[in-house]
Amino acid sequence: MKLSTYEPDALPPGARSLSYGVFCWLNRHVTVLRALGALLRRWPAIGGRFGLVARASAVKDVLMRTRSFSNTAHAANMVSGDYLIGMDPGPTYSADRDLVHARLAALDVPADSDVEAQRRIKALRGRGAAGFDLIDEYLMWVVFRAMRPLFGAATGAVVAGSVTDASKGDVDEDLQRQYMLEIRYVAGQLLAGSLATLDLRRRAEACGDALQARIDRVTGTIGAAWGVKSSSADIERNAVGLAWISHPVTVQSGALVVQELLGRQKVYDELWSLADKLGEPAVWADPEFRKIVRNHVLELMRFRPIFPLLARDVPRDTEMTTGARQNAGCPGGGKVSLLSIAALFDSRVVPQSGRYCPDRDWGNEDALRYLMFGYGYRQCPARDYAVEILTSALIGLLTLPRLQLARGEGKAIAYDGPLMLCMRMRTT
């Protein structure tokens, strides 16, 4: 198996730009990745030659073998420093994971996300038929409100980057927006991967430095709010990581969910009609309706996951199961790529995988349903919180008059590489 071990800066500028462009295009056209995945599932030996895995059983096997296939593949794209997503199992990983679980336990989801979704929807409804940006005027605020308890009493200091400024009262929305844009571009580097252009890397590094400086100034306040006695370095590492991974990744996932839903007009019409029939406030209080919307969120994420491709380092020579008759040899120092989106459509384990079916019975493969959040021990600890936040956000949008992309004034969706910057919407 031939595995590339180049450093991205060693690529000629033209080759880097071309590779990055292809990568971004594939992330926006996941049906192409699904088609490629179907071919590799049919002939897994071909994928094995190039370090590509597509069958669900093989993808799960790689993700479960954390010593043989390492998460450190993400480390090069994490411009703000170490965090769980780029660590191997060990004492530091375990301690950080415990801290993250403790902070997540402070969240009050879906109550907080429901409240903010209702508040933002009320404001949008008051504007009448005027268009709005789904990301900047809705999603990022719903997610921000739900994630505020991560920093507890230190939230204002983190957003302001100053204990003194935060002590003056609530941090205004302009500063909150600045903070959210800062962490957005840091997370954008993770989405872009090692093929990112130098300009994008420089911007991510500048935002990463700004985020580090922001956290450095208020580390003591964060530690006091968390009630932990860890070293300042431990607090800083986890505070930075919680800031840039929790918010922008959830926002991007929400935008992808809405994009996929609007591309399925019949599904959207059925959900909208059901919400309209229930009316407010029943749409927020009805547990059965929430369950229905939650199932749709998961199915929409299956069709358009935020990370359709995953990379893993190979620290030492090993073999990889692909589903072919023989395992693929993996030389140490290389990488393997997992087509997680292909695994989510593997008909061997997902009944009628090509059919949009939010009520599908996953049976003993229920864990695979959440593959967009990882698998096994390394699964994102905020999985259920993120799904509930997106459920709240989608319920809010279903209470508006019928939505569609605002295509009248240029492109409705603007991208910055693989990062969705805005999605202009209008009601009809």
In words, what does this structure look like?
The chain is an alpha+beta fold and 428 residues long. The protein has a single domain (8-427), classed as Cytochrome p450 (Orthogonal Bundle). It has helices at residues 13-28, 30-42, 44-49, 56-64, 91-104, 111-126, 135-147, 155-160, 163-166, 173-192, 198-217, 219-226, 232-262, 265-278, 282-285, 287-303, 340-343, 383-398, and strands at residues 52-53, 132-133, 309-313, 318-320, 328-330, 335-339, 403-405, 413-416, 419-427. The longest helix has 31 residues, at 232-262. It is globular. The model is unreliable at 1-6 (pLDDT under 50).
Tell me the CATH topology: Cytochrome p450
CATH class call? Mainly Alpha
Whole-number total of structural domains: 1
Apparent shape: globular
Question: Percent of residues in helical segments?
Answer: 40-55%
Number of helices: 18
> What are the secondary-structure elements, in order, as H or E?
HHHEHHHEHHHHHHHHHHEEEEHHEEE
Q: What's the alpha carbon Rg, rounded to whole Å?
A: 21 Å
Strand percentage:
5-15%
Superfamily (CATH H level) name: Cytochrome P450
Main sheet summary: 4 strands, antiparallel
